[in-house]
Amino acid sequence: MSGPLYPSHPDKTKTAPGGGPATPAEAVVSPMTTFSTHVDPLPHYTMSGASGLGAWVAYARMGNPRNAVIAGAAAAMYAYAGYKIGQGETKMGYDVGTLASVGLLAATGKHAWTTSEAWATSMAGVGGVSALLNLPKAYQVRTGRPADMA
Question: Are residues 61 and 83 in contact, defined by beta-carbon separation less than 8 angstroms?
Answer without folding.
Answer: no
